[in-house]
Amino acid sequence: MENNVTTTNFCVIYTPVSDWEFASIKFRWFHLAPTPGEERRLSYYDVDAYASTSDQYASMFVNCPVGAAPPDEFLWAELAVQTPGTGSDHDDMIAILNSAAYAVVDALDCTEESGLTPEPPARWEGTT
């Protein structure tokens, strides 16, 4: 039996004066995690398997083996800010995404496997 997994928005934030989408957090399953350090414009964070931020996105890939998940795939969480350059700090963006991702892995009962904690991850200082 094949798993039919769809992407759904976990959270969408609108500006107070219009219906314009300001930011969204999405979760999906993905078969491959990027390699930290490949893009100089990104800030990387100490998360197993991967976490990074840019001026517009924060991404996190974590292990979360649950019954409905495709085998050997990562839970991919992504925060997208629709208006880049609004003063978003990379560390603030990863803190927001970590809070949402931690809530999801806690609900899926895979916090131990994910390695996430309620505290935001530290910046990754490794080398590729």
Annotate the secondary structure layout.
Elements: E1 8-14, E2 21-30, E3 43-44, E4 49-53, E5 57-63, E6 74-81, H1 90-107, H2 111-114
Antiparallel strand pairs: 1-2, 2-6, 3-4, 4-5, 5-6
Sum up the structure in keywords.
128 residues, alpha+beta, 2 helices, 6 strands, single chain, six-stranded antiparallel sheet
Outline of the structure:
The chain has 128 residues and is α+β, with helices and mostly antiparallel strands. 17% of the residues lie in helices and 30% in strands.
Descriptive notes:
The protein has helices at 90-107, 111-114; strands at 8-14, 21-30, 43-44, 49-53, 57-63, 74-81. It is of the alpha+beta class and 128 residues long. The relative contact order is 0.23. The mean pLDDT is 82.
Work out the helix count.
Answer: 2
Instruction: Please state how the strands of the largest beta sheet are arranged side by side.
Output: 1-2-6-5-4-3
Q: Sketch the major β-sheet.
A: 6 strands, antiparallel
Order of helices and strands: EEEEEEHH
Uncertain stretches: none
Q: Shape from CA axes?
A: globular
Strand coverage percent: 25-35%
Task: Please tell me how large the radius of gyration is.
Answer: 15 Å
- Percent of residues in helices: 10-25%
Number of E strands: 6
First CA to last CA: what distance?
38 Å
Average pLDDT number: 82
Q: What structural category characterises the helix and strand content? A: alpha+beta
